[in-house]
Fold this sequence. Notes:
mainly alpha; elongated
Amino acid sequence: MKNKDRNIEKRNEEEDNRVVANMNIEGMPWHIQGKPLYDESKEPVPELDKKELRRLTLSATLSGLFIGAIFLIIIFLFIMFSIHIWF
């Protein structure tokens, strides 16, 4: 029980009340006209420096290439299976 209390306390400390996406949409049951459900943050988003931006771009590119390579390997193995075993 103590671990649960610690996790709840830790979660409450980490929450900073920022809104990622306002879900106050017309037609939804919780829609309130004229009043937002949450206070949106007025703080500007910090800019990335060149090193962080380069690292982010490289990571995204490599992950895309990795996923593409996995698909190509699966297609290649399916073709080899079809040619040598199936027919």
